[in-house]
Specification:
Layout (H helix, E strand, L loop, with lengths): L1 H25 L7 H12 L1 H11 L6 H31 L5 H32 L4 H33 L9 H27 L7
Length: 211
Amino acid sequence: MLERLSAAAVVLGLSCALYLIAAVVRHPQKMWIMNLVWPITALYFGPFAIWAYYAMGRRMDKPLWQSVAVGGTHCGAGCTLGDIIAEFALFALVGAAVTGWARMGITYAADFTLAYILGIAFQYFAIAPMRGDWGRRSLIAALQADTLSLTAFEIGLFGWMAIAQMVLFQPSLQANEWTFWCMMQIGMILGYFTAFPVNWWLIATGIKERM
């Protein structure tokens, strides 16, 4: 039953992502990187991402809380994409041969590394067009803007997945199971909220650009 419910949750996320792909094709975002961010956000937030897209994503003039909310989706997209790629790659390479805390350590290192690279890339392609600067200064600004928020996102995600993998499920879930990805969806939602106050501070202090 849990596997069936998990499959339904993952398929719902995928369906919402496809819907938002069609939406941004019809009405491209002013900041092109957001054309990727919204569908990726739907993978874990599902219908809520569709609501947020219409309520906030297509508004040019946003109050601070909405800028923080949209900025959180931007941070989360790099994390989400990096984690998905890393998890599938690790499963393809080692399968279930490594388990327990050893598996968790390898997974966290791979997830964070790839999520960090992609997160900084997403941030760079948001900052550079706004500043008209495609050089070192925009890269440094991307590092300053996204390092703390991305780390906060991963703390929420990693904390939940540690509980799921080491406490709730024994043996640990694998990337070829629907329930694994449903747990990842929950972890990404928690990661979004653990990163929210960090994004608020970064945007309010001007370290991170308003979306």
